[in-house]
Predict the 3D structure of the following.
Amino acid sequence: MMALSDFVAELDQLAAQAQEAFDAASSQETLEAARIEFLGAKSGRLKAIQKQMGKVDKADKPAAGKRLNEVKQAIEETFTEASERLASGDTAGSSDVVFDTSLPGTSLAFGRLHPISQTIDELMDIMGRLGFSAAEGPEIEDDWHNFEALNIPREHPARDPLDNFYLSTAKQNANAPDDVLLLRSQTSTVQIRVMSKTPPPIRIISLGRVYRPDTADATHYPMFHQMEGLLIDKQVTMADLKSVLRLFATSYLGSEVHIRFRPSFFPFTEPSVEADFSWNDNWIEFGGAGMVDPNVLKAVGYDPDEVTGFAFGLGVERLCMRRHGVSDIREFYKNDVRFLQQF
Ligand code: FA5
């Protein structure tokens, strides 16, 4: 026995398949082959279904027969349409892409750069205009570039495994610090890489990712970006540092922004400062800075009596947040398109 619903479902499926095959035909030959497959008098697929009508309950037979005729007629009509289409010279077939100019227009949303990438481009542009060229360094660093050459000796707390992502922790206290690898915790590593290779004068910025095991909150993320600046020449002073940072701050955040330095400490600068920018009467810390420590200049083979320099490292996310009024750094890394589309 066959239920009427199963019989009808088979018919409907056949009709859909026939339509697809006829529409896709791109020549009279392929259309004829499809016709024989579906409508062939002896062994066509419609005929095969028709033969199953004997299994349908007697009471359902009139309904089944009616449906069979309807489907047969529909398939024949689709065939005639396809045949006419081919006769008129349209051999495209629906399997090829047909552009229907009468359809209403829809707009495609283009992809865009992530706000942090946009910020990096803009910061590079501003600093480029101030004469700084871009330099890059690896995100996986060794002991020498992340610590030793930056005047951070072996027992210094800045090396604490709780403050760094070591890639070879087993070795980090071993007697071979050369083997230590870690995700760089600051872009100051690039200062060392550039100075080791290039004689003074130097005027570079480096923008890239840094990693710290900080708990994520509104202003901290374990991966973030810094913009490192380094200028080495004869007779560079703190006044030059302040001028460059002021020019940068007003270019990026607007002419009403002021800048102030607070005394601070970094092993690789002396004196060291925290750089704050004012914003609607609020002072906000954007990064650290200072005059490059003579020990760092010596470590890269420079003569501290001949050259001096300044360096700074600013948080890129914090700058972008301030500029666009973003109150939580975590928004940048949620990958929520509704947030990202606003930039
Ligand atoms: C440094 O990293 C120094 N290398 C800066 C420096 C460079 C000083 C050159 C002297 C000379 P600090 O740890 O303060 O400094 O980080 C600099 C900035 O990075 C902070 O002011 C803040 O804006 C940003 N920052 C620090 N930690 C995070 C974090 N977890 N998430 C987002 N931004 C952070």
